[in-house]
Amino acid sequence: QKYVYAFSEGRADMKSLLGGKGANLAEMTNIGLPVPPGFTITTEACKEFYIAGRKFPEGLEQELETKVDWLEQTLNKKFGDPNGPLLVSVRSGAVISMPGMMDTVLNLGLNDQTVIGLATSSGNARWAYDCYRRFIQMFGNVVLDIEHHKFEGILEEQKHKRNVQFDNQLTSEDWQEVIGKYKAIVQKETGREFPQDPKEQLHKAIFAVFNSWENDRAIVYRKIHKISDDLGTAVNVQAMVFGNMGDDCGTGVAFTRNPSTGEKLLYGEFLTNAQGEDVVAGIRTPQPIAKLADEMPDVYQQFARTCTLLENHYKDMQDIEFTIERNKLWMLQTRNGKRTAQAAIRIAVEMVEEGIIDKEMAINRVDPNQLDQLLHRRIDPNAKLEVVAKGLPASPGSASGAVVFNADLAEKLNKQGQKVILVGTETTPDDIHGMVAAQGILTSRGGMTSHAAVVARGMGKPCVCGCEAIRIDSENKQFFVGNITVKNGDIVSIDGSTGDVILGEVPMIEPDLSAEFLKLLQWADNIRTLEVRANADTPEDAAKAREFGAQGIGLTRTEHMFMALDRLPIVQEMILANDIEERAAALAKLLPMQEGDFYGILKAMEGLPVCIRLLDPPLHEFLPNAEELAVEITQLKLTNGEPAKIQQKEDLLRKVRSLSEFNPMLGHRGCRLGITWPEVYAMQARAIFQATARLVKEDCKIDPEVEIPLVIELKELAYLRKLVEDVAEEVKKETGVDFHYSVGTMIEIPRAALLADEIASQAEFFSFGTNDLTQTTLGFSRDDAEGKFMQPYIEKKILNDNPFIVLDRKGVGKLMQWTVENARRVKPDLLIGICGEHGGEPSSVEFCHMIGLNYVSCSPYRVPIARLAAAQAAV
Ligand code: ADP
Ligand code: MG
Ligand code: MG
């Protein structure tokens, strides 16, 4: 077993063994880019480390020894040699990048002797001591577990004493003083002197990086991003290069294209005379990368060329770390850059146009889940806004919410259903849970590559950072801007596309799709075979769905129409009717209203199929609540209310109680209503057909699909189908108009799925109602599951995902597959779709494609997501 690979021995496709960072360092080395030499300890070694109970696996020590010898020879330097000390960085490198989650130590190899050697041989004592104090600080924090602020405090003190603002203004003597104090802290906290032996330092640092795989923030990050806990991290040991030797040095990070908008322009930040994390940590405000062209034109040219080369090599936008040591460029990291949805689309489309990738690859490049960001409402650009401050537009989108200054509180309020904006000077990896809970993030410090910005973009959350106009007083939970004080709980809005910070709520407008987005969707449409419909209950929703590219309506629910305020009393009349005549009278009043509803929707979807589901929910949903009624009656009695009125309420209460069910979800609902009260379904069918006849007369092409819900048995469907057909014949005769329609059923109870072949004989279409099918297959009532036991099921990994969000392929999926196969055996061209919420969830869409459905149907706003997901399933 080989545990250690020199960079020259690796390749980009060895990510799972070498980690992302190690594999790409190897790749860059092998394409001849200037990468400081080094080697990678494999993720296998890390896994073995944990299996052995946090011990180095056998053989690792020897291999390390050999590789360190090799590195010493290559560089002609030696660990611990004051005349030419080898200094290295020890860098974590997970398989899937987890920015900022794990640990890195720089300048390892320094000690009291080598620092003197370094100072004398370089003639740059300030630099040598700066490196040493950084090393003690990082090693102290990462390896010895000493809190960061203990070191920061000393640094701040020293700056204060010297009356300077920035680290780089401190002198060699200052650093020596700081080092003395740092070492004292180490002594005090660990009871030991700071380790002086470089090999011991290396050993401990590697140990710490392995350990950091299991630190809390890494665990949380993996949970949020659904990264497996078993992957382990690699460790990279790499010769140091120095960006902090003077003004002809620097360090920076850059994206080959703008990660926020996708614009093709080198985008990033650098700092002269700085090392490592200085840029991202917001120590000094960095300069935009374009400035490098003025300050070091040759280096900039070389860097720009390297960026293009890397982009073409990886065929994707790169996120790059580099350091300049005395005018020489060194590449320290490259990876595919994280980006917003907007940027992902633009980059994918433009890379096709530039000939770098093909259309299929472009389609696969955009994560459909991410598109959600673009399909949301945003701040109305014409609104008059009270913009109180402007920061950096770090992650697009807008959000409103109550100000909170603390991640725990953000999480707590969010759980209670409050929308919050997390505000802070900056964020750290310990704030992740608060960022997840917040609608948006606002920081007063830090640049476009600060922690807040990077993480927010990754999560697709609006973020405004580096908003220096606001002054945060976290002690008293408030911030000041100009002469305004904003307190904990006050509502603010942020616009992450402009950097605006606004007091109060703001008016929002509907999203519009960019030209690139439309182009990408067009390509997707040409590739996919699965059709995409929308679920819509109103003409407005239907129009929106059409605009987003829906090819029909997969589900129109009629119950919402019954809920409207002016209808509810009539619906109640119908339900409470004592006999058929009374019910008929109520239905007669509802008929023209329903006809109007269907007319509107059918017209909005002219030329496309519209699937209308007959009444489905249990009747009690339309009735007043029994407890409230009882209270009302008591009140009436206590206040000597009219006896007739009391009588009426008591009758009502009796009726409500008699209709109450132990388990409404499994009760008197769906086609069971149609069986017991055929006149209700007959009225609905009549409304559909009368609307159809009118529209056909108006020369519209109309294609209604009448859908019977909750069927379990062929005879149910046969009975109701006959009823619908009889009404259709009547309407045809009465109006003299001939029209086309079809009758089908939902498949949402396991029995219906199992008897698919029989039921298919009476149906022209099937539509999987996967919300109910999931409930009835798992025996989980959705509301109870999500409120009470879903979370533990997922945390304990009993279920991988919430089956109400991601289709349960193993169970529900098996029933669906059975249904499709058996139904199509009887009726090869049976139309089959899905109208549960899964119809807009990318992995479920993929499954629907795999089992050969004709269409998925989802909410109008998810139609573009489904179009892309369906194309991804097809390529
Ligand atoms: P992260 O994954 O958190 O970015 P890195 O391992 O990339 O951690 O390192 C942190 C910082 O230190 C980065 O800015 C990186 O460029 C810098 N760095 C790492 N190794 C070296 C090295 N050998 N020489 C100079 N700078 C380095
Ligand atoms: Mg890095
Ligand atoms: Mg249902």
UniProtKB/TrEMBL annotation:
Positions contributing to substrate binding: R557, R613, E748, G769, T770, N771, D772
Pfam annotation, one family: PEP-utilizers
Binding site for Mg(2+): E748, D772
Cofactor section: Mg(2+)
Positions in coiled-coil regions: none
Family: Belongs to the PEP-utilizing enzyme family.
Entry protein name: Pyruvate, phosphate dikinase
Annotated source species: Desulforamulus reducens (strain ATCC BAA-1160 / DSM 100696 / MI-1) (Desulfotomaculum reducens)
